[in-house]
Amino acid sequence: ASLTNRAGDYKGWTYNFAGKLDSLFTQAIVQGTLNTGPVRHDIVAGVGLQRSRDRYSNEFYYENDFDGNLYQNQPFQISRTPDFSYAPATTDTQRYAFISDTVHLGEHWQVVAGLRYNDFRAHDSGNPSAPDYETSKASPTLALIYKPDARTSFYASYVQALEPGTRVSPPYANAGQLLGATISKQYEIGAKHESGRVGYAAALFRVQLANQMDRKIGEERYFTQDGLNIYQGAEVSTAWQVDRALKVGLSAVYLDATLDRVSIDSAALEGKTPANAPKWQAALSAQYRVPALDRLKLHGNVQYFGAAWATPQNRLEVPG
Predict the structure, then answer these.
(1) What one-character-per-residue DSSP string does the chain give?
(2) Distance between CA atoms of 123 and 130, rounded to whole angstroms?
(3) What percent of the chain has pLDDT over 70?
(4) Burial class (CB within 10 angstroms; exposed 0-12, middle 13-18, buried 19+) of 293
(5) What pLDDT is attached to residue 213?
(6) What are the CB-based long-range contacts (under 8 Å, 24+) for 168-172?
(7) pLDDT range class, residue 179, cuts 50, 70, 90
(8) 68 pLDDT more than 80
């Protein structure tokens, strides 16, 4: 149901469809160490395959079957018989290979250099007029680590990745459409320390991801991709081993999120805050090892999420 005014009037829609989603994931990894003179290399390499095969019903029913008001009973009952027979499948396949080398330059410096190659392909066997979609990308990972001692690390990193295209599912009006693959980027600098019973970490970060959102055109709702979500902020955490039995942890995140580089059609969203991105998050955790039963641990978590916008239009704020 879609509200039409503050008095509680709504337009009611009924939809029926069926879906069957099959996924395959397999990966092989090899890792080892080799020395080139005084320099040690820790190498990890692998190949993998991910495949999803989705089938939806031949009929997708979506109609304005009933209207009403929130403060009145709604007598509508479904009387039609839906068709749940399956249409031909859509298949998305991702093949990838990666290699990473952690180079130890003496006792204090390390360099991590990695490369990942992704090949993404999509095929819609139910729509012969739809061309197969294919894209590939080699994306790097780079990091520099300084360890003044064995328990402390300062680091800076850059990660780039190919994000496969998203296949739109019902009940959106553009169900079956494939949104194009995108490139995500992440920058981070931080510090970590572990000293016996106390550990802490702190980081500054910036992440760029494609923005995906609902868009209503007429009476129908579409799932679209437009612009960038830019998340930047700071994260701190600490953990304290109080005694042999009790360990407590505390973490907090400050997030400054912005919508950027949107199209002309979405110009009103430029500079808005993405949906579901609170400025503040915090978590308190505890782990207790039961003394009488050494293998039994009890865990507890309390998490706080600050107020966040429900949509990228920033019209409705959900309280913390």
Answers:
(1) -EE-STT-EEEEEEEE--EEEEEEEEEEEEEEEEEETTEEEEEEEEEEEEEEEEEEBS--EEEEEEEEETTS-------S----PBPPPEEEEEEEEEEEEEEEETTTEEEEEEEEEEEEEEEETT-TTSPPEEEEEEEEEEEEEEEEETTEEEEEEEEEEEEPPPBP-TTSTTTT-BPPPEEEEEEEEEEEEEETTEEEEEEEEEEEEEEEEEEEETTEEEEEEEEEEEEEEEEEEEEEE-SSSEEEEEEEEEEEEEEES--GGGGGGTTPPPTT--SEEEEEEEEEE-TTSTT-EEEEEEEEE--EESSTT---EEP-
(2) 8
(3) 99
(4) exposed
(5) 84
(6) 168/223, 169/19, 169/54, 169/56, 170/15, 170/17, 170/19, 170/56, 170/60, 171/15, 171/17, 171/60, 171/62, 171/221, 172/214, 172/221, 172/222, 172/223
(7) confident
(8) yes
Residue 128 confidence (pLDDT): 73
Q: Residue 273 corresponds to which tokens in the numbers above?
A: 């805050």
- Which residue type sits at 138? A
**Amino acid, single-letter form, for residue 239:** A
CB atoms within 10 A of CB 148: 11
- How far is Cα of residue 270 from the mean position of the Cα atoms in its chain? 22
| Sheet of strand 220-241, all strands in order from the earlier edge strand to the far edge | 19-36, 39-56, 90-105, 109-124, 133-149, 152-163, 182-195, 198-217, 220-241, 246-260, 280-289, 297-305
| Number of Cβ atoms within 10 Å of the Cβ of 31 | 10
Q: Quickly tell me which residue has 């995140």 as its tokens.
A: 253
Cα separation, 91 vs 107, whole angstroms: 49
Other CB atoms within 10 Å distance of the CB of residue 167: 20
Strand partners of residue 23: 52
- Whole-angstrom distance between the N-terminal and C-terminal Cα of the chain? 25
